[in-house]
Amino acid sequence: MAMATATSTSISTQFRRTSLFHSSLSTRKSHFFHLKASSGSEITEEEQVGAPQKKKIFVAGATGSTGKRIVEQLLAKGFSVKAGVHDIDKAKTTLPGDNPNLQILKADVTEGSTKLADAISDDSEAVVCATGFRPSWDLFAPWKVDNFGTVNLVDACRKRGVNRFILISSILVNGAAMGQLLNPAYIFLNIFGLTLVAKLQAEQYIRKSGINYTIIRPGGLRNDPPKGNIVMEPEDTLYEGSISRDQVAEVSVEALLHPESYYKVVEIVARTEAPKRSFVELFSSIKKG
């Protein structure tokens, strides 16, 4: 399930760690951020004496097909990234290990919030959850990862005082309420232990937690490059369509840059006939949940 690509205008703003990028109390180093939002968003930094230290984005599920793209795009935009992975050896061959802004560490979302809090630690400013269970004969796997694992991450954020959370979910999670019980996609995705039900309950936990969230529900995920532009709709609207994982990663990263994404559930697909819109426009078109 994936999404179309991003945006057009280039907005230049300079700030010293506001909202998402709050200053840490460290006095060793400081960073001055130059943020250009929209399609060409990027963050550049200049060291300044006595200024606060740059914090990091923690990505859970960083070696997954979508997670690794999120890591790559975050690094490309100048973020420092902590890649939480289940398999360190796999991560070393999957992620760009020679990047000084990337830290790879073991983080299993099924092992409870305490270990996750240790991995997130005090140097993380936000968490992106791109985890997903691997199909198996274990019918509890979706609940262990997509439900309990996500809940563990939220609880770990609370322990560390991290107040920004991005979740990659799926369209049709609330298919029953949408009248989509007979939708082939809804049936297929629930074959493996009621995956969509597990995701929906995790979403509900996030929304009640008080954390500043953006829940991204992509359509069918494609590994190929983007085709068409991103279409963004409110929750429980889309019941078909697909999107490139590259576009899903892009929306995830842009959500960190735009306050218009705060406390929102967005559904995304890509369509060739859709007009190209800026991320400010896209996020602003969705009401807060």
Automatic annotation (TrEMBL):
It comes from the Eukaryota. InterPro entries: NAD(P)-bd_dom, NAD(P)-bd_dom_sf. Pfam families: NAD_binding_10. Residues 61-259 form the NAD(P)-binding domain. This is NAD(P)-binding domain-containing protein. It comes from Olea europaea subsp. europaea.
